[in-house]
Amino acid sequence: MVLFYRAHFGTDETILDGKEYDVYVSYARNTEEEDFVLLTLRGVLENEYGYKLCIFDRDSLPGGIVTDETLSFIQRSRRLLVVFSPNYVLRGTQALLEFKAGLENMASQGTIKVILVQYKPVKKSQVKELRQAKTVLTVIKWKGEKSRYPSGRFWKQLLVKLPVKSRTKNLWGQQELIGLSPKGV
Fold first, then answer.
1. Catalytic positions, please?
2. 107-116: per-residue pLDDT in tens?
3. Quick check: 180 and 36 in contact, CB under 8 A?
4. 156 near 147, Cβ under 8 Å?
5. What pLDDT score does 64 carry?
6. In the 8-state DSSP scheme, what is residue 144?
7. Any idea where the TIR domain is (predicted)?
8. Contact 111, 46 (CB under 8 A)
9. Range list of H helices, the chain
10. Is the pTM of this model over 0.70?
11. Residue whose C-alpha is closest to residue 122's, from 148, 156, 99
């Protein structure tokens, strides 16, 4: 019901806010989560729904300072989508820098909203900020095969958290399977 209302009566959040990206995606690099982000999330959100994603490894220029570019990308995004898993919570990763910068921005300036997507269950987190964020933010759970259909619960929950756009495709009636490989298999 919320998606129907937003599609027909919602105000486009992306007009005149000065942001370049709809979503900055934070995930553990060199893991299966990277395939999930690059093939599934990117494919559906950019191709099906027209969102402009910022993916650091794709959108950054070589030779820049990672921390400066990360902070700049987060400031130029409307949402921070955190795909967390056991790999994500390893200390010292770029993903944790992105997560902490997004939380700091949300708390101090309120210019970005943080969305948590649980790719795989995480045991009691070693990262204090993630534990705290999970208590105050909605966690959207990816359930593998059950979450692959664009009309499924996962995608509907995610779309509710994303910025309202004037041209969002309707979810009803779409039943194709989203693949995790480049060929869509």
1. 98
2. 888 888 999 9
3. yes
4. no
5. 84
6. G
7. 19-162
8. no
9. 2-9, 32-35, 42, 56-59, 66-75, 94-108, 128-136, 153-161
10. yes
11. 99
- What CA–CA distance (Å, rounded) separates 100 from 102? 5
Q: What distance in Å separates the CA atoms of residue 152 and residue 156, rounded to the nearest whole number?
A: 6
Q: Residue 161 burial (CB < 10 Å; 0-12/13-18/19+)?
A: middle
The CB density around residue 104, as the number of other CB atoms within 10 Å, is 14
Half-sphere exposure at residue 38, Cβ-oriented, CA atoms within 13 angstroms: 15
CB half-sphere exposure, 133, CA atoms < 13 A = 27
Amino acid making up residue 56: F
Token digits of residue 185? 């298999």
Instruction: For residues 155 and 177, give the distance between their C-alpha atoms in angstroms, rounded to a whole number.
Output: 12
